[in-house]
Amino acid sequence: MRKLLAVALLAAVSVPACGTGGASGDAVPVVIGYQSKTINTVTAGTLLREKGFLERRLAGLGDRTGRRYEVVWQDYDTGAPITAQMVAGKVDIGSMGDYPLLINGSRTRQRGGEGSRMVSVTGYNARGALNMVVVRPDSPARTLADLAGRKVSTSVGSAGHGTLVRALGGVQVTVENHQPSVGASALQGGGVAALSQFVAWPGQLVFAGQAKVLYDGAALDFPTLHGVVVRGPFAAAHPDVLAEFLRAQLDATEYLHRAPLEAAEVVARVTGLPPEVVYLYNGPNGIATFDLSLKSVLRAALRDDVPLLRSIGDIEPLDVDRFVDDGPLRSVFAGTEDLVNPARVTGVDPVCGVEVGDPATAGEVWFEGEAGTRPAATPDCLLRQVKQAGRAVRAAYVPDAATGTRWFAEHSFWVRDGDRLLPFTTEAAAAERGPVLSYEQALAEA
């Protein structure tokens, strides 16, 4: 396993990149490494790029300093190649998941000097639902124990890998180290029994009817997050640029909260992901909470990740309190310790006629031909909306009755509980509450 992790990281060094040579003339280059399809990082990546927030902020800085700044964007599938490019001095600022963040901090410090610093969070889920283990729809597996002795695909050293290791406990599996797209193909082809990956791969595969959730990372009740790292030498040389990057990230975050559906469609258009999948994660009450704050609970999670990461890979010890630097962020944003998602489903339920507000029960329906979504106060109200409308649904979103994970109603497992119908992301969780109903059966009973 140690050798696999080293190979995964070192092989990424060969990825070609524009580096600082991507800027022209006397411009100050600002090289950003991002993951367009890791939609928990869009406020420091795809959405930030497409809306031009950073370029506008740097243009304003240039007016004040008399210098010209040129942003070079580099897109990657995972955090490992971004780290490799940062070690080589070819990427200045990058965004990635919790495990890759820690690997980044460790590897950049191994080279001496200032290493890298984590300066903000892009998005997080306080329970861990950004990562999931999925299997084929026809898989007989119901729990992780059913994978014993089987092959499971993940990206070694990724956030999805971390969830898999924590969740397996004593269950022994053979880990196949794949890029997410390769792992998804292996799952479809039967080369692996399961796939453990980060946002948005589980949602994408389930929405396409190519997988079902075997394990929801929220069952761990352990925070998972993505964040932003900056090379120490770059931060020291250009603190004003870093400050403008963080202001631009805040611009992107505020835009996402202000116009979530529009933002989801922007990301979908650029990445090729279905907008319904992007909105699952990035919409109101979404699986991802977008907030730049370096919250104490997230710092504690990173500290707890270090020994686990060291046990599965050859990395050096890392002082997380030194690695996480809130100084640059505090200069532009006060931050908060609040874990409440600021993006919430609100409005009046058109069928039940009540105010929508409680994130533990609130959902949304996106009907074909409609530009916006309709709020639903409860899963029962949502089912009634769909049933009464008698029209095609693009997507319907409900929170898991146990974990609160926002998921597709059509791909949830339902249980009758007295006069309520409760949705769950996994069949195993639903079966603990009673006989499991399909979406169609739940719809019929609504």
Record keyword descriptors for this entry.
446 residues; alpha+beta; D-Maltodextrin-Binding Protein, domain 2; 3 domains; 5-stranded mixed beta sheet; 18 helices; 20 strands; 38% helix; globular
What's the quick description here?
With 446 residues, the protein is an alpha+beta fold. The protein has helices at residues 2-10, 46-51, 53-65, 79-87, 98-110, 159-168, 180-189, 201-207, 232-237, 239-258, 260-271, 275-282, 296-312, 320-323, 327-330, 379-389, 427-431, 439-445, and strands at residues 28-34, 69-75, 93-97, 116-125, 131-135, 151-154, 174-177, 194-198, 212-216, 224-231, 289-290, 347-348, 355-356, 363-367, 374-376, 393-399, 406-408, 413-417, 420-424, 436-437. It folds into three domains: 2-123 and 224-330, Periplasmic binding protein-like II (D-Maltodextrin-Binding Protein, domain 2, 3-Layer(aba) Sandwich), CATH 3.40.190; 131-220, D-Maltodextrin-Binding Protein, domain 2 (3-Layer(aba) Sandwich); 347-445, no CATH class.
